[in-house]
Amino acid sequence: MLCPKCSTPLTEKYYKGMLPVDYCPLCRGMWLDFDELDRLEDAAFDQDALKGSLLHRETDSLRVCPSCGGELREFQYRLYDLKLDWCPARHGFWLDAGEEERVQALMLRRAGEVRRKQAAEGEWQNLLKGLHQFLKQRP
Ligand SMILES: [Zn+2]
Ligand SMILES: [Zn+2]
Q1: In a domain, 101, yes or no
Q2: Cα distance between residue 64 and residue 69, in whole Å
Q3: Is residue 126 part of a domain?
Q4: Rounded mean pLDDT of 64-90?
Q5: What is the pTM of this model?
Q6: Which range marks the domain in which residue 71 is found?
Q7: Domain count for the chain
Q8: Least crowded by CB within 10 Å, which of 2, 3, 80, 126?
Q9: Ligand 1 mean position to 9 CA, how many Å?
Q10: Whole-number Cα distances in Å, 118 to 26, 104, 109, 113, 121
Q11: CA of 20 to the centre of ligand 2 (A)
């Protein structure tokens, strides 16, 4: 497989010892199989239902899929300020150098937001419970 960005042959590598990826030794980008992006995210935040939808605002990409040679599409990742490429035939995702770090950082941020929201909702529930008890106790 050739790098969609610089056409260098991709080599296999274990990303942080947890994920086998096809890696470009020249531009340091990586190709993730379809479920590998999910596994990369899960390392930071594993509640799929709360991640938000993945693909936003797709546009043409000048790159081609290293697996099938078809044109990749560029998309906005989960409404964040990050653009990734993917193969519409579901072969995988292309991440430029450093974008895998951004995916994980954004998922950590999302995990923090969800935790804060859940904590706030928990407090609200307690407040309501307290209010109910207060009302019941009144003569
Ligand atoms: Zn490359
Ligand atoms: Zn493809």
Answers
A1: yes
A2: 5
A3: no
A4: 95
A5: 0.83
A6: 11-107
A7: 1
A8: 126
A9: 8
A10: 43, 21, 14, 9, 5
A11: 18
